[in-house]
Design goal:
This protein is mostly beta strands. It has one domain. The chain has four helices and 13 strands.
Length: 183
């Protein structure tokens, strides 16, 4: 049996709402396998899309995006379908390739919070060239037996448009607010 190993490209294809994912209504957002338990989540935009198929593997990618006056917070979930799994990658390997970022630099060390691995970085946004201060995060679950892969990866970022980067307390609150219906 062939297995499709899903890497950064598929994981990131839907991580940014400007991608191919179909936007959903607030009611449909409740049907996602990820959710955010924050007051600001009532203004969230979300979407999801199945990908792949046949004997090459398949899966589903979903996202939730919250934009406030001074920040953007995006959470994405990619789940492997049949004949597929995700390789475990570091925060920089995943977040550094999101299409929203024209460039990333000044990567800090990896830290942990609420079962997520986090890493600070600076970025320049694609299109506008705006400079933002960010924290990226990633969580893998559902190890696939006899492989080095996982069934689920939750990844995302929180970026500040101001001169102050997201605080540790904010990141603890954000990643602690992410809920999901799988393990």
């Amino acid at each position: 049996m062939k297995r499709l190993v899903l890497g950064v490209a598929v994981t990131l294809a839907l991580a940014v709402p400007a991608g191919r994912a179909a936007a959903m209504s607030p009611g449909e957002c409740a049907d996602l396998s990820i959710r955010i338990k924050l007051p600001e989540a009532s203004s969230a935009k979300c979407g999801g899309e199945n990908f792949g198929g046949g004997d090459q593997g398949s899966g589903r990618a979903e996202y939730i995006q919250i934009i406030t006056g001074d920040s953007i917070f995006v959470v994405s979930h990619t789940s492997a379908g049949v004949r597929s799994y995700m390789r475990r990658l570091g925060v920089k390997d995943i977040i550094g390739n999101y299409s929203i970022f024209a460039s990333t630099d000044n990567w800090g060390d990896e830290t942990e919070s609420n079962d997520f691995t986090l890493r600070r970085f600076d970025a320049k946004l694609t299109g506008s060239g705006a400079k933002v201060l960010c924290v990226g995060f990633v969580h893998f679950s559902g190890h696939v037996a006899s492989s080095t892969g996982y069934r689920h990866v939750i990844s995302g970022y929180d970026c500040s448009f101001g001169a102050t980067p997201p605080t540790d307390a904010r990141m603890d609150q954000l990643v602690g607010s992410i809920g999901y219906d799988f393990e």
